[in-house]
Design brief:
The protein is mostly helical and 198 residues long. It contains ten helices and no strands.
Length: 198
């Protein structure tokens, strides 16, 4: 009975990921994850590519383009509206220490800081808003974002394609576990942030 239900769920999931609005969903999350959303979009890029491995380059492209566009938007929000928006966002998520660290890093090298921001545990949105608030050079900011975020997303999307049905089948067969793990991670993250404030 459980295997039948799981198979139905997998078939439903594949059908949903074939919907045209799924690309818009990915683009929306990629854009706003660079500005305000707390959940990384990696679960979407990897899961979508697992469901449809041959579309890996499309998912990687959409995630990269809209993530960088969101980064530029975050930059200008930090530049023009840091006092009205940026500082409230940083305080809301408890990113004060991360923001202070990013501020120090930007004084060293804008390009490498933005490139490595794609692979650090510090949320990307902190880098984008901080970059605007500090008025760092925009060209290396954008180029490094394209290279860093592009490398990250294309690798995530390529893995299911490279390893074929095994990777996709593993993700889909254990999809509920990954969702639960992601939910627990988010809850634990905010609990820890809350406890550090006390």
């Amino acid at each position: 009975m459980m295997s039948i239900m799981k198979r139905r769920f997998i078939n439903w999931f594949k059908t949903v990921t074939e919907k045209k609005w799924m690309m818009y969903f990915l683009a929306f999350n990629a854009f706003f994850e660079s500005v305000i959303l707390p959940v990384p979009i990696d679960i979407f890029t990897f899961t979508l590519s697992s469901a449809h491995p041959k579309r890996w380059w499309k998912y990687g492209t959409v995630a990269t383009v809209f993530s960088v566009l969101g980064a530029v938007f975050g930059y200008y929000l930090g530049f023009y509206l840091f006092d009205a928006f940026g500082i409230q966002m940083i305080e809301f998520y408890g990113y004060e220490e991360e923001f202070a660290r990013v501020t120090e890093l930007f004084q060293q090298n804008v390009f490498w800081v933005m490139f490595m921001s794609a692979f650090t545990p510090i949320p990307y949105k902190v880098f984008t808003v901080a970059g605007g608030a500090l008025n760092v050079a925009l060209l290396p900011f954008i180029v490094a974002s394209i290279l860093g975020r592009g490398l990250r997303f294309f690798i995530e999307c390529y893995i299911p394609y490279r390893f074929g049905e095994k990777a996709g089948k593993h993700i889909l067969d254990h999809f509920n576990r990954y969702v639960l793990l992601g939910a627990l991670f988010i809850v634990a993250y905010f609990i820890l942030k809350y406890l550090t404030v006390l």
